[in-house]
Amino acid sequence: MNKHSSFSQPSPRSVDEITGSRRLRRMRKAPWSRRLVQETQLTVNDLIWPIFLTEGTNVREPIAAMPGLFRVSPDLAAKEAERAAKLGIPALATFPNVAFDLKDEAGSQIRERENLINRGTRAIKAAVPEIGIITDVALDPFTTHGHDGILRDGIILNDETVAQIAHGAVLQAEAGADIIAPSDMMDGRIGAIRDALDANGFSDVPIMSYATKFASAYYGPYREAIGTAGLLKGDKKTYYIDPANSDEAVRETEQDLAEGADMIMVKPGLPYLDIIRRLKDEFAMPTFAYQVSGEYSMIRAAAANGWIDGERVMMETLLAFKRAGCDGILTYFAPEAAELLAKGGL
Fold first, then answer.
1. Predicted structure pTM score
2. What Enzyme Commission number(s) does the record list for this chain (predicted)?
3. In the CATH scheme, what architecture does the domain 46-342 have?
4. What is residue 94's three-state secondary structure?
């Protein structure tokens, strides 16, 4: 008995007849030919390294939810900047873990000239003046409730928050920040920050807008890193974008550019590659993605369990951002990726 199922055999055609002699594997047959036709390339120039600041001197605290990462005091942040510069990383983005006794409902520490983020900037610039520093003026590291704005009677006050962060932006520029990157998603913040910077002699300081920051579940480890885990009252859905919305992301970006943004960012990164591509095609502006803490920690955890090749997945995701249209990527993997790229990649 024939164990194989029978079916009607078509008259045989050669593969060349089927494909019209178009064999797409021809240029994949050797490393040199694959390199020759590679459409997208990742370089160290595409990397921005976010680092976390904490109080003290010679302090290096591990972040449990982000294996391999640390909070560092300003003096050690300067050392990290030296390391980044040697690797060729163009810029750092700094985020402070503010002591709880310095937090209040209005995030008033953002208005202090010598707050942690500004001291970190000064320390880094003194040690490595040539490296770029990107600072955020959202209030969440500075508030007792973990929101990005001033909270009153359960409502985030847009206009009062905008005035607060515009003041903070001027102080950050004064401390040496090269780019102001507001992530709070308040209406009108870009125009207010632009006006404040220009009025105080910082017209050459650009703004990288978190133009499309989504109400995502990927931010959890970051909140531990900056000390806001457990503080958040409610959620951020009244000011972050619904993950279901693409047209709204375009409208937010268009508004920020009209108000004076020089660069745009999509956050989180990997779940929103379609948004990156759409914004790049729509506006042709310098476009960035933030590979956020949840993305980082998932890769680290899966690699630690032996489920994936961590290095290869890391590099593949970074390449995906470039393929989608990014001019650069904020990624906690920056030093590791830079070292691999220096060795020729994977």
1. 0.93
2. 4.2.1.24
3. Alpha-Beta Barrel (3.20)
4. strand
